[in-house]
Every structure is written in C-alpha cells, then in structure tokens.
Write a structure and sequence with these properties.
0% strand; mainly alpha
C-alpha cells in the first residue's frame, strides 16, 4: 500500500477519532478508506448522470425526442403500449 500524508481539519480529525473509538474501524486508515470508497461511488454516479445528460442533449440535437409534455411521457410509460 502507498503511504500518504493528509491534512485534516480539527472536525475531520475528531470524526475519524470517534469512528475508531466506536470500534467501527480498527484505525484511521480504515476510516479514511471507507470515506474514499463513498467518494468513489458518488463520482461514478455523477459520471453516469453526466453521460446520460450528454446523451440526451445529443438526442435532442439529432431530433430524437418525443412530442408532448413530461406528463405525457410519464403517462405513455405507465399506460403501456397502445391497443
């Protein structure tokens, strides 16, 4: 593993100390790695949302969008195929 030095605010340091004292984590490194895993998940979700927005914009530019309002689209999605 790589060793890094980080600077934490007093509040961040206190949080890490509380997490370790609670027994949830064995040491500060484990607590910080857990926080980084959450950040990694958030970043992946953000990138997926960003990609979806960009794809939607590309579809609009290509003229690939449905007529009507958002309410119409929701009704079509939940009503199923027309008979």
């Amino acid at each position: 593993m790589v060793t890094r030095n980080v600077v934490l605010t007093d509040a961040q340091s206190a949080l890490v100390d509380r997490m370790v004292r609670s027994g949830r984590f064995q040491n500060a490194s484990e607590a910080l790695r857990a926080g980084l895993r959450l950040l990694e998940r958030d970043e992946a979700e953000f990138e997926a949302a960003r990609a979806g927005v960009l794809e939607g914009l590309d579809q609009i530019r290509r003229g690939e969008f449905a007529d009507g309002t958002a309410e119409d689209a929701i009704r079509r999605a939940f009503d199923g195929p027309a008979s």
